[in-house]
Design a protein that fits this description.
There is one protein chain. By secondary structure, this protein is an alpha/beta fold. The chain has one domain: 3-Layer(aba) Sandwich (Rossmann fold), CATH 3.40.50. Helices cover 29% and strands 13% of the residues. It contains six helices and eight strands; from the N terminus they run E-H-E-H-H-E-H-E-H-E-E-H-E-E. The strands form two sheets. Strands 1, 2, 3, 4, 5 and 6 form a six-stranded parallel β-sheet that branches. A two-stranded antiparallel sheet has the order 7-8. Helix 1 packs parallel to helix 6. The chain is globular, with a radius of gyration of 19 Å. It comes from Mesorhizobium salmacidum. This is NAD(P)H-dependent oxidoreductase. Belongs to the NAD(P)H dehydrogenase (quinone) family.
Length: 264
Amino acid sequence: MKVLLVFAHPEPRSLNGALRDVAVKELEAQGHEVLISDLYADGWKSEVDRADFPGLSPDARLVPVAASKKAFETNALTEDVKTEIEKLLWADALILQFPLWWFAMPAILKGWVDRVFAYGFAYGVGEHSDKRWGDRYGEGTLVGKRAMLIVTAGGWEDHYSPRGVNGAIDDLLFPINHGILYYPGYDVLPPFVVYSVDRFNEAGFEPVAERLRERMRTLATTAPIPYRRQNDGDYLIPSMRLRAELGDPGAAGFELHLNRGAAD
């Protein structure tokens, strides 16, 4: 497999840096080809602004969606964005690695998504009609590829449990797994999460490193999160509401968008 790892941590000597090295070494040992986009080291520009659209007239109002669409269609995206898109098309699997800061990814990684997931590439793709609502949520440009997260969190695992005060980790990561990765077609694997990293010591590193090696060894075979496909009949078009007869009785929120098979 060809693997792109997008790394978002400002310190290469951090725990994240050590875990990245473990992941890359194991992937290469398994015969995979790996590319790394190190956003801090590369000085990635995170904000979307007029500089992203050099073809936009100076007196024109900036509408980011429209500008992104035109730039993608005319091959006028900036070179840094085009390079990252080429990497995504090259890769069979994408890994996003980051520390959980304020219940989300670091701003630099969100900015990578904002700029690289261009209109016509990652969204705004496919037919919109009374039968389908675009190629998204299980379809799209990146269909057939795999994606997963490597995440570190300062809080205890209990704090991110279903009854934990921080909220369930699967709920916190849903906007990334479902809204960013599944949306353009990726098969999204369960995340690899390391907890209590603010209290980490050397003795605790090797068991975590071995768990990560195992996840890298099974990157091609791990079953993805069973999200519902948008255009397979589970959702009413164009309202995009889940059919009333689907989902566990009493279920609400993100859980409804998991297809549990016989449970429905």
